[in-house]
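Entry 14. Ran structure prediction on the chain below.
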Amino acid sequence: MANEVFKALASPTRRTIFDVLAERPGQALVEICSRLSEQHHLAISRQAVSQHLAVLEAAGLVESRREGRYKLHDVNALWSRRLDALEQHLNENP
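Output, structure tokens:
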């Protein structure tokens, strides 16, 4: 599982998508694409974002659920806490 997590986070685009979801949970694909374009100036197709989300979900970093005709995406809270702790550790021990 750790290999999948590190592989998923190796992509700067996937890390940005992860951060976008961490800022505001429960986003549909169209919302994620909009935020990537407006806030991060990433010109990326919906299909590419969908593929990146699939990699993040396969690694267990992101979870999704259906609400009506929308598929909403959330950061897995367990991984969010773990990555926050890792970031804190790395900042304290350069």
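Helices lie at 2-9, 12-23, 29-40, 46-58, 77-92. Will compare against last week's run tomorrow.
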